[in-house]
Amino acid sequence: MTIIKNIALPTDVSQRADVAVQVAADLARAHHAGVTLLHIHEPAIFELPEGYVQSASSQLGRVFDEFNRRLEETEAVLRKHGVQRVETRILSGDVVDEIVKFAADFNYVVMATHGRIGLDRLLLGSVAQKVLERASCTVIVVRRPEQRE
Fold this sequence. Notes:
149 residues, alpha/beta, Rossmann fold, five-stranded parallel beta sheet, two-stranded antiparallel sheet, 5 helices, 26% strand, globular
């Protein structure tokens, strides 16, 4: 039997991602494991005549404040469900690359999928699918109940 000590819970802090929180909480409680909430901020880069410019730093402060607020809300939900050890992290970079690198030190990744199909999936890709393909640990992908067929 695999000993589970730590679970990474990547989130885009949307309501769709909340479905994975319950699964991670159940797994953590059953194994007395810790959960690390992870949000990856993918910086927007704009091309201007003078060169490439990232989004304004004054806006980034507000954006990170909102991410922190939502992560704190999710942390409270995990604690309410009996998870004793919860940490939060915000990283910046390519979402899939950062999740895969971060997950290297974890036993499990629990993440939600938006359940996109067809052209949406082709154009937007699937973060969950790419993490499944590249992560070195076990990945549990959770869908919202209305997405199941």
